[in-house]
Amino acid sequence: MAAGPGWARSLPGCTAARDAVVRAARAHMPCQLLDGFSLLVQLFLALGSFSSLVYKRHCERPQRKLRIWLFDTSKQALSAGLVHLLNMAIAQVVGARAEPRAKSRDPCVVYTVNLCFDVAVGTLISYHLLLVAERALSRLAECGCCGAPSLAACARACASTGQYGCPPRVSRWLPQLALWVLIVCVSKALCAAIALRTRLVMDLGAMLLRPLAPSPRAELVIVMLVLPLVLSVAQLWVQVREAFGARARAGPPRLAPYARRPPPARGPPPLPPGQFFET
Hints:
The structure is a single chain. The chain is an all-alpha fold. Helix content is 72%, strand content 0%. The chain has nine helices and no strands. It is elongated, with a radius of gyration of 28 Å.
C-alpha cells in the first residue's frame, strides 16, 4: 500500500497535471529583482557596459587622452548607475502595490518599460535639456549675473560640456558631472511619469514578457542583462559620441589672457632669401 502513491505519481497524467500546476504557479509569481541571482546578473551587466566603453576607446580615432576619457566615462557610468537604481526602486514600489495577478505591474515588466522609455525618449529629453542649460549658463557667465567668481567659473565650466581645460582639471569636471546628473534625474522623472500613466504601454510590455513567465530566471536574464546591455551600450555610445563630437567641433581649448604663453624661440634671425652665409 505504501508504494501506491508513488506509483500514482509516476503516471504520465499525474506528472503532466503536476507540471501544469507548477507552470501556472510560476506564471503568477512576481519577478525578483533583489535576490542573489539577480545581483549576479546585474554585476555582469555592469562589466559588459564598461567593457563596451573600453572597446570604443580602443577603436576611436583620434583617441582621447586617458584623463579626458576617464572624465567622460565617469559621467556616463554614474548617471547610468543612478538610472538603473531608480528603475529598480520604481519597479519594486509599483510591484509591491499591485494586485497579485496584475502582470502589467510585475517588477520585470515595469523595469523593462522604464528602460525602453529611458533609451527612446530619455536620451532626447536629456540632450535638449543639456542644450538649454548650456545656453542659459553661458549667458549668465557672460553677463556677470552669477555674483561670486567661483559661481561664474562653475557656470563657464558647465556651459562647455566635454571641455575640461588644458590640462584637464577636476574643478571643471565636477560642475559638469553635477549638471549632467541633475538633467538625468529630471529626464528619468518625466519618462517614469509617462510610462506609468500609459496603460497601453504597460500591457504591451506584459504581453511581450508573457512567454518567459514559466521560466523566472530566463526572464530575469533577458530583462536584467540582455536587453539592458544592448540598450544601455547604444545609449552610452550615443552620449559619449555626442560629447566627443562637440569637443571636436569646438576645437582645442583657447589660452586665457592670463595664461603663460611659450617663450619665443632663441637663435639668430633667419637669413634673407638667396643668402646662404652670414657676411
